[in-house]
Amino acid sequence: MITLRSLLVPHRIAMMAVFAALVLWCAYALRWDWIPKYAPLAAEGIWRTIWILAVTSVLGFLLAIPLGLAQAIGPWYLAAPARTFCTIIRGTPLLLQIWLLYYGLGSLFPQYPWIRESELWPYLRQAWPYAVLALTLSYAGYEGEVMRGAFSGVARGQIEAAQAFGMPRFTMFRRIWLPQAIQNALPTLGGETILQLKATPLVATIAIVESYAVASRVRQDTFIVYEPLLLLAVVYMVIAGILAYGFRKLEQRVPVKGH
Amino acid sequence: MTEAIATDRNDPAAASAEEAIRVEDLHKSFGNLEVLKGVNMSAKKGDVVAIIGGSGSGKSTMLRCINFLETPTSGRIVIGGEEIAMRADGSPASRKQIERVRSRLGMVFQAFNLWTHRTLIENVTEVPVHVLGVPKAEAHDRAMALLERVGLAEKAATYPAFLSGGQQQRAAIARALAIDPSVMLFDEPTSALDPELVGEVLTVIRDLAAEGRTMLLVTHEMKFAREVSDHVIYLFEGRIEEQGPPEAVFGAPKSERLKQFLKSVA
């Protein structure tokens, strides 16, 4: 627990002084005059980073539940494809996956007239559906593995108690098994979601203007290199901090003895 | 393997209105190991049946076969006059039926098995609300009364991990009572407890016996079994070696094995 008293010890005061000096030096010695001009674009980029992260994490997690379940208790014809999917996703670079989907799928679609004429075409011509798909599949692949372990890790007695009281299978899954598996997985999921955040700049390579792409734009336009990158680092750290805090709050909903 | 009966036919001649549980020719094998070798027993409403026996005698397995937590290899299980339909492999033939029957059997486990992600009160209301469809407010009031009864009202909002074993087991009994069970099944309810915590759990069970609840009690507590039960079953290697009223079984055992067993646990 951080208290004011615990902060007011010599080595911490010294560290804070160094940090404050560093911030002040950055503020005065570096160039920040480009900010007003690029602020609207930066806000848009940050917003895009956040929603890409949110959408792909949520969708990816929803996919991870059946992927984990299939591997934990599924028959072989469900377990094998789920395991294969997770292995391929986790065994190949995300950048490659993004490019394969965008350049591969994206150039395959226009060859079919019925796709070009479909209602979806205006979206399929853009880059973001491929970015969202790639990041979603990636998150699902990693978290499918996490959920496999989390489902297997729920104590047998917890399930048996539900069975003994005649709980129907789906109710048991929804009320007992899934919440306990998620609770077990939360510390890992928190870390993985932060990794997912830091993977989002890769979609800049298929021309999606998120936070990183904005920093690149500033560099190209103004030849200012470090300042946009420093600010970008701060942006990611703030989002990561908020995520870490949020996950910790979620974990604490069920208190653990000894904490 | 003997032939399994796969019908939902009830036997009106054998099933009087007073009968709570009947087990006929129950066999159970784990692989090549036959744990139950043809057990027959029955309990009337209000009976307290104690099941005793050494470790590996099959007493827990028998109890767990009654609500099909273990799948019997063969035999018949009749609960409240309703026979549980079995497939040839012994698994319940109708999920609906087994779920309905289970929701009337209050199981208490050796390891408590309270749901760790829910507070005590949530543990007690879980089945009434989400299985039996009792309105939340009503279930909550009943759950509070039950926690009060087992002396845990002030712990209602606590998570199981923060309680002693004795407290957890008392809460688990409250959870089982919350479904207003026709039969309570106790699977060695005090075996996982520190010695000084056994008494508080036995007190709760004794109260239930006194109010005329039908109970099957697998236990190592011989003095307690003698005190609360109407009928005692001694299992040895998957068979009923001896049974009878507690005075007879404990006071004047006939079987050599039972005499040996009682000497060894005394």
Count of domains of chain A: 1
Low-pLDDT runs of 5+ residues of chain B are 1-15
In one word, what is the shape of chain A? flat
Rg of chain B computed from alpha carbons, rounded to a whole number of angstroms: 18 Å
**Major β-sheet annotation of chain B:** 6 strands, mixed
Order of helices and strands of chain B: EEEHEEHEHHHEHEHEEHH
Q: How does this structure look, described?
A:
The complex is a heterodimer of chains A (259) and B (266). Chain A is mainly alpha-helical and 259 residues long. In chain A, 80% of the residues lie in helices and 0% in strands. Chain A has one domain: MetI-like fold (Orthogonal Bundle). Chain A has helices at 4-7, 10-29, 35-73, 76-91, 94-108, 113-116, 121-124, 128-153, 156-164, 169-199, 211-222, 226-251. Chain A is flat and about 70 Å long. Chain A starts with a helix and ends in an 8-residue tail after the last helix. The mean pLDDT of chain A is 93. Chain B is an alpha/beta fold and 266 residues long. Chain B has helices at 59-66, 95-102, 120-130, 136-149, 165-177, 195-210, 222-228, 246-251, 256-265; strands at 19-30, 33-44, 48-53, 74-79, 82-83, 105-108, 183-187, 215-218, 231-236, 239-244. In chain B, a hairpin with a 2-residue loop joins strand 9 and strand 10. In chain B, helix 3 (120-130) crosses helix 4 (136-149). The termini of chain B are far apart. Chain A binds chain B through residues 155, 157-158, 160-169, 171, 175-176, 179-180, 183, 254-257, and chain B through 67, 69, 95, 98-105, 107, 109, 111, 113-117, 126-127, 130-131, 159, 161-162, 179.
